[in-house]
């Protein structure tokens, strides 16, 4: 007997029908058809995902195939990639449907990085983190993160400096993995990561097509559970064209986050604003204008960050 959340009428799916919905979507119809074609109840799908190291509830899977919700978080996107393998589907078939649908929905946001690029980058990021044997949970809880971004005379993102205050929540943590996502047109091979205080740079991995860079920052000591630590590093970029925004994503809730964007005196924006998003696929909200200071900078402060995205955007003309 099929599981109650898997409709009986979708079990007999011809290969041609499945191929059609995989090409044209939408995502939830393709997912439902693929699950039905393999004859798997949702509990078995969940079990297979667990074996792939991905945790997704049966309820979430049911919502995804009904179109009530859509995968958005990095962990959910990992699940979608695993589902392609579990359900014996062509690589990127489900991920592509997610990206296509969101680009149609957010086509008016030309200045923002597209969901397609974010989806592609999430897969590359997972790959690069795997090369560094870095788990998604690095064993650190953020108490404070202060970040300064510098925009150059050609409107490019010159670089950013990050100052972290963290607390270890497991034994033996001795590193942090920094992630930088350059603007379209950037050249990751020309980006550099420099340790500034209480850390040293380790292995660095880059991916040219998506502009993703990850770098190990080794601590000067091995932390015990409950220990706090402060460290500072910078990423030097300056390799892309005009930058229009800077965003920072957060997983678990954490402490204070402060972001300052400083502009070159010969490249001042017309206006600046802050914004938030529940996820990369969600609409932006919380827009608030930010006035430039006499020192040509704007900033935002989140006393306690929540899961999602916060950022600063600006218009050049």
Task: Characterise the protein shown here.
This protein is α+β, with helices and mostly antiparallel strands. It folds into two domains: 98 residues; 178 residues, Immunoglobulin-like (Sandwich), CATH 2.60.40. It is 26% helix and 34% strand. The chain contains seven helices and 13 strands. The strands form three sheets. The chain has a six-stranded mixed sheet with strand order 4-7-2-1-9-12, with no helix packed on it. A four-stranded antiparallel sheet has the order 8-13-10-11, with no helix packed on it. A hairpin with a 4-residue loop joins strand 5 and strand 6. Helix 1 runs antiparallel to helix 2. The radius of gyration is 21 Å and the shape is globular. It starts with 14 loop residues before the first helix and ends with a strand. The N terminus is likely disordered.
Q: Identify the CATH architecture of the largest domain.
A: Sandwich
Number of strands: 13
Adjacency order of strands in the biggest sheet = 4-7-2-1-9-12
Q: Give the mean pLDDT.
A: 85
User: What share of the residues lie within helices?
Assistant: 25-40%
Encode the helix/strand succession as letters.
HHHHHHHEEEEEEEEEEEEE
Q: Estimate the global geometry from the Cα principal axes.
A: globular
Q: Strand-residue fraction?
A: 25-35%
Structural class: alpha+beta
């Amino acid at each position: 007997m099929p599981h109650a959340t898997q409709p009986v009428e979708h079990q007999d799916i011809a290969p041609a029908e499945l191929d059609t919905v995989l090409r044209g979507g939408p995502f939830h119809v393709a997912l439902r058809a693929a699950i039905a074609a393999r004859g798997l109840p949702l509990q078995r799908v969940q079990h297979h995902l667990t074996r792939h190291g991905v945790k997704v509830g049966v309820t979430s899977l049911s919502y995804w195939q009904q179109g009530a919700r859509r995968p958005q978080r990095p962990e959910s996107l990992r699940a979608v990639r695993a589902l392609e393998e579990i359900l014996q589907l062509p690589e990127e078939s489900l991920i592509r449907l997610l990206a296509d649908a969101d680009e149609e929905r957010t086509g008016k946001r030309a200045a923002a990085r597209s969901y397609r690029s974010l989806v592609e980058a999430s897969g590359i990021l997972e790959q690069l983190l795997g090369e560094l044997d870095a788990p998604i949970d690095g064993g650190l809880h953020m108490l404070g993160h202060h970040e300064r971004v510098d925009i150059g005379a050609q409107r490019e993102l010159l670089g950013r400096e990050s100052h972290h205050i963290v607390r270890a929540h497991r034994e033996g943590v001795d590193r942090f993995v920094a992630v930088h996502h350059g603007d379209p047109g950037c050249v990751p091979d020309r980006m550099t990561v420099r340790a500034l205080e209480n850390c040293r740079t380790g292995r660095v991995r880059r991916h040219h097509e998506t502009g993703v860079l990850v770098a190990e920052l080794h601590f000067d000591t091995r932390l015990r559970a409950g220990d706090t630590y402060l460290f500072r590093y910078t990423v030097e970029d300056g390799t892309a064209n005009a930058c229009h925004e800077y965003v920072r994503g957060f997983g678990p809730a954490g402490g204070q986050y402060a972001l300052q964007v400083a502009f070159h005196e010969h490249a001042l924006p017309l206006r600046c604003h802050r914004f938030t998003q529940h996820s990369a696929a969600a609409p932006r909200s919380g827009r608030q204008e930010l006035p430039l200071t006499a020192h040509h900078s704007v900033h935002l402060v989140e006393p306690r960050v929540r899961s999602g995205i916060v950022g600063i955007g600006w218009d050049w003309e």
